[in-house]
Amino acid sequence: MSSSEVFAELLWAEKYRPKSLKEIVNQEEIVRRLMKFVEEKNMPHLLFAGPPGTGKTTTALALAHDLYGEEWRKYVLELNASDERGIAVIRTKVKEFARSKIPGDVPFKIVLLDEADNMTADAQQALRRLMEMYVETTRFILIANYPSKIIEPIQSRCAVFRFTPLKKEDVIARLKWICDQEKVKCRDDALEVIYEISMGDMRKAINILQSAAALGEVTVSHVFKVVGLAHPKEVREIIQLALAGKFIEARDKLRNLMVTYGLSGNDILKQLHREIFSADLKIPEDVRVILADYIGEIQFRIVEGADDEIQLTALLARMALLGRKLG
């Protein structure tokens, strides 16, 4: 079996998803509060909020598993509100599930609405009414990346749990564990880069790992190749050449990056912005401030519809002029 075939099952597959709240890391306070609900076999409506890939859905499913045991799926209606987000779904599928009682130690069922922030306003109003009517038989768990898009009446009916991006050591430890399970070779510096790119999003980190493993050993170059980003060293060279007054060389290298990696103007600007604040780029702080201002202006122009290459060339020209002034 090839690496790509092995990793096809990796992305949040059942065997790698934590089955119980006790297996979840980096969200200790949230787990402690939820474990109390499991002990009491009672809970309010819940709203899980936070960035993507921080374990919101996994935590909700682990909570259901701990409440109901191995047959937890009988007691949980799981919907993705980005697909089924209209008022008709709330009035039919959710209402039918919510109105019936169940026998057992736990006196309620769970409706899990993933990506609830994508629900229409009408659907949210209908949901608010259901949350009131069937609170004796059903508890709702709403999951949202942007809780501000959830109407206030629903927020006030829920206990809010805010998830934070995963810590670096937790992400890298999990990636190493996955590599060990699948007998995939990976370098420590490549895992560091995966974390920097994913910024605490575990799902994104595993996706990058999966793609890089398809190329063989997981290395830094493979990681940057699969995510469609230029190597930071090459981006730093462009900045250094421009500031050294070597405008033509910097422009040629920039064009080469755009062709080789297929990067858009915005992609390159984001990497330039990241690199000007990198400790590996040895420039004075006041120069970083000026470069950040230049990049912000060029990014605005590109967003407004200006030509990518012309604007990036103009940015390099301003860098070259700045370098000459600084002498």
UniProtKB/TrEMBL annotation:
Q: Which UniProt keywords apply?
A: ATP-binding, DNA replication, Nucleotide-binding
SMART domains attached to this UniProt entry: AAA
- Kindly give the InterPro entries that the UniProt entry links to this protein: AAA+_ATPase (IPR003593), ATPase_AAA_core (IPR003959), DNA_pol3_clamp-load_cplx_C (IPR008921), DNA_Rep/Repair_Clamp_Loader (IPR050238), P-loop_NTPase (IPR027417), Rep_factor-C_ssu_arc (IPR023748), Rep_factorC_C (IPR013748), RFC_lid (IPR047854)
Which residues of the sequence carry a binding annotation for ATP?
G50, P51, P52, G53, T54, G55, K56, T57
Please give the subunit comment from the record: Heteromultimer composed of small subunits (RfcS) and large subunits (RfcL).
**Assigned protein family:** Belongs to the activator 1 small subunits family. RfcS subfamily.
Describe the function of this protein: Part of the RFC clamp loader complex which loads the PCNA sliding clamp onto DNA.
Protein name per the record: Replication factor C small subunit
- List the source organism: Ignisphaera aggregans
